[in-house]
Protein: PorT family protein
Organism: Phnomibacter ginsenosidimutans
Amino acid sequence: MRILTVLISLFCAQTVLAQTTPVDSLAKAKQAKAKYDYNKLNLKNRANDHFLIQFGYDSWAGAPDSLRITGLGRHLNMYVMYDMPFKTNPQWSVAIGAGLGSSNIFFEKTDIRLTSTATSKSVAFRNVADTNHFKKYKLTNVWVEAPVELRWVKNPANPNKSFKIAIGAKVGTMISAYTKGKNLQSSAGNSIYGNKYTQKTKERSFFNGTRLAGTIRVGYGAFSLYGAYQVTGLFKEGAGPEVMPYSIGLSIGGL
């Protein structure tokens, strides 16, 4: 009698499983399909890096040692972006924008002559270690830029909680170039006018007015690692050293 009861119980359990398993599997399949049904996603108000702030390290590729570059060069970029997802697959999108980019390169015991003279038609980097020099000295360039990116995001409905990658380029026009020195010192290292004394010289005639750079971003959510390499020379041909600026840093996206 006990054996008959056990057999009946096993038969009933098998029957229930046979009835419920296909239904559960079908439900899961429908949920998986709905998850990737891009036509039902509302992407109008999604945050996908419509505003970008980028900052980090700057330097020059191909710079000779005679330029005496020192310290940590840095950049700060800010862009407003318009993101356009693909209708067939909104994991992919194209973004275009506009904004400002800057670069600061620091030098040690150097004087940069940005204005031409009767004997010099190019920028001059003078070693002034044996004479008066600034304790802190930098060259700054500022551009108005238009970046464009091809973007991919794992979760198009919520990019702020998803892995993402973007490759692209940016073209810019230079609006400012200047050197800035702080705390003029004698060759012995003594301050001449005090540590608050600064001197600024603006001139951009030696620089290429247009720059083109390739870019890449890889990250998660609002934060990405960012890199850029300028493919056009910083200086006009014959007007300065043949250097290519590059940047590595952090990109923060919002909105």
About this structure: The CA atoms of residues 122 and 238 lie 7 Å apart. The two ends are 71 Å apart (CA to CA).
